[in-house]
Amino acid sequence: MNIKFVEYKIGELKFSPSSQLLENLSNLDSINIDDYLRFTPIFFQNSSKNFVIKFHLEVKTEETSFFELEFLSKFECEQDIDEKFKESNFPIINAPAIAYPFLRAFVSNFFVSSGYYPILLPTYNFTKFKKST
C-alpha cells in the first residue's frame, strides 16, 4: 500500500510566555519527552483513504504550562484503510515517526519567530509502541 504524508495543520496553540519563565528554561534535550508528548491515530468514517496523527505537546515547568500545541498530520493511502492496517505498526510507529520532525521544526521555528531562543525537542523513538505479539 502506498502511503504519503500530505500536510500538517495546527489544531490549537496556547502560548503564555513570561520573561522569568523563559529565562529559567533548561534545554529540553535533557527531559523525558514522554512527559510532554502524546499522540494518537485518528481514522475517519467518511474518508476511507485518509487518516491523521494527532499530537498533543505541552511544555511546562513545575510552576506552569507555557506552550500547548495540537498538531495534526494528515496521511493519504492509495487503497482503503481496513482493520488490518489500523492494527498494524504503521499508524503507531511509522506515521508518527514521519510527522514528528515537522512538529520539532514547527516548535523550534515558532519560538525563534516569536523572538525567543528555540526550544529543541529531543529525537523520539516510536518503536517502543510496537505491539507485542
Please indicate the count of domains.
Answer: 1
* Portion in beta strands: 25-35%
Given as residue ranges, the uncertain stretches (5+ residues, pLDDT < 50) are none
Helix percent band: 10-25%
The helix count comes to 3
Overall pLDDT confidence: 86
Order of secondary-structure elements: EHEEEHH
Shape descriptor reads elongated
CATH architectural grouping: Roll
What is the spatial order of strands in the main beta sheet? 1-4-3-2
CATH class type: Alpha Beta
Query: What is the CATH homologous superfamily assignment?
Result: SecB-like
Which quaternary structure do these chains form? single chain
Pfam family, one: SecB
Keywords: Protein transport, Translocation, Transport
Family: Belongs to the SecB family.
Protein name: Protein-export chaperone SecB
